[in-house]
Amino acid sequence: MPMEEFDELYFKYSDRIYSYILLMVGDKQIAEDLTQETFVKMFRNREQFQEQSQFSTWLISIARNCTIDYLRKQKPLFLWPFDRLTSITAKDTVEMKVEKNEAVGELYRQISMLKQKYKEVIILRKIQELSIKETADILGWSEGKVKMVTHRAMEKLRLHMKEEVDVHETIR
Description:
RNA polymerase, sigma-24 subunit, ECF subfamily; WH-like_DNA-bd_sf
């Protein structure tokens, strides 16, 4: 693979890979390192790419494997503060920025508390906006399982969010 082609692929996919990994590990430096590792593995194993699947699906699978390998080495598995990851626009008022940060931070905090498979499927389907087929390919699941686990994960997330709202209302 010529260096220009590698650079083009890196430019095209690095932000998406980085954001996926960041959502999984919650640490910017670790996400940067794992993103680099993902592209190194992609380069080393480029002959293994099969044209039947999309390149982005194959690359996210590599990122997932790198991330899982990293998480397995962590003892204990930590929960990370997603509120550091929120973005705000210049048009937002101060109040809107605070509310948006709090809401997104709480959503990501609740996602981080889900089981690993629920967390992964929500990140891939709802945050990365991958199709059911792409998600199934990455996770090695059937499309039916992706639908079922996504539904269960969203129900669990809704339950967690409702409980959080109920607790806040009780405190007030």
